[in-house]
Amino acid sequence: MSQELLSVGQASQWASDYLDRPVTTSNISYLIQYAKIKKYLDEEKKIKVNLNELKEYYDENLVKKQESWKSQLGKDLNWALSFSHLRESDTTKHVHRLHPYKGKFIPQLVEYFLDSHLNTFKKKVFFKEGNIILDPFMGSGTTLVQSSEIGLHSIGIDVSDFNCLISKVKIEKYDLVRLDRKARDICFKTREFSQKVFDDSFDEQLKEKLNEFNKKYFPNPEFKSNVWKGIIRNEEQYGEEKLKQFLKENEEFFKKNGTKDKSNLLSEKEMNNFLNKWFSRRVRQELFYYIKLLREIGDEDLKNVLRIILSRTARSCRATTHSDLATLTEPQNGPYYCRKHKKLCTPINSIVKHLIRYTYDTINRLNEFSKLKKSVFSNVIHGDSREVDIFGEIKTQNPEFYKFLVNKKIDGVFTSPPYVGQIDYHEQHAYAYELFDIARKDDKEIGPLFNGQGQKAREEYVKGISKVFINISKFVKDDGDFFVVANDKYNLYPIIAEKSGLKIVEQFKRPVLNRTERDRQPYAEIIFHMRKK
Question: Residue 327: pLDDT band by 50, 70, 90 thresholds?
């Protein structure tokens, strides 16, 4: 077996059978690209991998680790709820990948509890078509999207205006032909502006210089392999030394100006410090030109879709390293040594390619979801779930839904409140708030990262979540089912249930496992099934 060579497709099939979960050709290509396993070429120059090396990699990096994780996380886990067999394309299907969002649960978890299937663990159907589901911590709208797909009416509430924007865009109905035409038009007008004002040859020459330098000093896959094996012991030092060498060799080149028509530059007086700090001049100009075109559009629903496209684009084009998109520690304005790719890289200096790709992708995803969602009511409320009048808000937004709702009441809740001291939900989309001049309500967040995880923060968290459940219970049927997804490492939810007048009738503990080739530690979360006392 040690000498048996497999094609990428054969390796994908073998790994899927061996691990009892889907392993795609992209997964195998990732291992080759990052030198986790060697690449071989057959007589026809086709890529092959060694079966024994592949098995050794998975044994060492997945099989043993998963056994260790099982012992760490406990024996009371429902492993079926890990959904580890799913591909990334399954967990980010249609509109679920319309915009990045930290802290969301996968759609399959929502679907598991909302749909009508039964199995060894789920012995009762909790909801049926036509029921009404509430998510008081809506986030990016996963519960609303899945409810629409299953045939359930839904209401989502969130204190973040931008979260509401993402969710509205996902569930709204559109004239997709008109949307496609307008999205392409504004996209390509932005490209024309960029090409007129900025000199593409500078970026093209920079890429050529980087490619030549990387081939010489960071050859792939030899360099990556030497790093993994420890032959290059101080990767960071080596990378920084070569970066200094590259900058010195090209000192005159970097003195060139990348702008060819300054007369068409937009005024930057309206641009705040955040935008100036985290975006290059060219990216800022392109973003604001797109926004300028947005202001000419009268259809608010259409404009919201274009805002999401631009926000997704802006997130990908911030002046930072490839490994720092989620955290933003320091701006990166020129070439740098990239630990992720093991070579010299440079920040993105134009939004155009991302804008075109995300424009097409967004239209395709909205079109795909339009064919799946049922004809149900689905409404978003921008408000504080601790005090919002749900029926009053729906009456204003959708009188038809209100008539249906007030006679029936809400059948149940499926939600995932923020975890204590883990995420600042407004800050993760700071660029969007600044771009679109959206008011922030950071002080209304429950359990934000900036409050920490100390005793006082936990007490405030219990108080805040309890207030939400007390308020929303007024609008839920007396026999309604509450499903609350939480990583309750401080054992706060029994206290929250007691303070909220709810009782925990069942718990489902699931492992949250790493489903990519990158090593992230797993953790367990509990789905609390509650009811009114």
Answer: low
The size of the chain, in residues, is 533
**Of 7, 5, 110, 119, which is closest to residue 52 (Cα–Cα)?**
5
CATH of domain 79-172+366-532: 3.40.50.150
Residue 269 token pair = 């007086």
Tell me the CA distances in angstroms from 213 to 241, 253, 254, 453, 527, one per residue in order.
13, 15, 16, 46, 52
d(CA 469, CA 386): 8
Residue type, 173: K
Helices 8-19 and 25-33: crossing angle in degrees, nearest 10, is 110
Structure tokens at 228: 């993994």
In this structure, are residues 23 and 12 in contact, taking their beta carbons and an 8 Å threshold?
yes
The pLDDT of residue 334:
87
What share of the chain in percent tops pLDDT 90? Answer: 65
Average model confidence (pLDDT) across the chain = 90
- Which amino acid is present at 267? S
pLDDT tens, residue by residue, 122-166:
889 999 999 999 999 999 999 999 999 999 999 999 999 999 999
**Over the stretch 438-473, which tens digit does the pLDDT of each residue have?**
999 999 999 999 999 999 999 999 999 999 999 999
pLDDT digits over 304-326, tens only? Answer: 999 999 999 999 998 888 777 66
Q: Is the peptide bond before 417 cis (omega within 30 degrees of 0)?
A: no
- SS3 at position 52: helix
The domain ranges of the chain are 5-73, 79-172+366-532, 176-361
The pair phi, psi for residue 117, each rounded to 5°, is: -75, 155
465-501 core/surface letters (b: 16 or more CB in 10 A; e: else): bbbbbebbbebbeeebbbbbbbebebebbeebbeebe
Name the strand (E) or helix (H) holding 50: strand 47-50
Rg of the chain taking only CA atoms, in angstroms: 26
Whether residue 258 is predicted with pLDDT greater than 80 in this model: the reply is no
Rounded Cα distance between 350 and 203, Å, is 9
Tokens found for residue 452: 């920490």
Which H or E run includes 6?
strand 5-7
